[in-house]
Amino acid sequence: MLVLVFASLPIPAFAQTASDRAANSQPAGIDPTLLAKASAGDAASQVAVGEDYAAGKGIARDYKQAAAWYRKAAERGDVAGEMHLAALYRDGGGKYFARDMAQAAEWYRKAAEQGDVTAQGILGTLYSMGQGVPLSYPDAYYWLDLAAHVKGPNQEKYAANRQSIGTRITADDLADVQDRVEKWLAAHPR
Question: What's the pTM value of the predicted model, to 2 decimals?
Answer without folding.
Answer: 0.83
